[in-house]
Amino acid sequence: MNCVICKHSETSEGFATVVLTRGGSTIIIKDVPAQICSNCGEYYLSSEMTKEVFRIANEAVKKGAEIEIIKYAA
Fold it and tell me: Per the confidence metrics, is the pTM higher than 0.85?
């Protein structure tokens, strides 16, 4: 896929760190499978991975996490 941000490079499979904030919570999920632009570093998640990342983040917020760092494990 061509990067929609920089429009200069194709993306390739790799791993990204996703940072989500909601209210007073910041959730960091590391090693998330993604398509990553080799030029600008922008990452793209599949719809299934996006749902999984939101599920993980929602669980952390429900636990009352202010800051949580999670390593994604498939």
Answer: yes
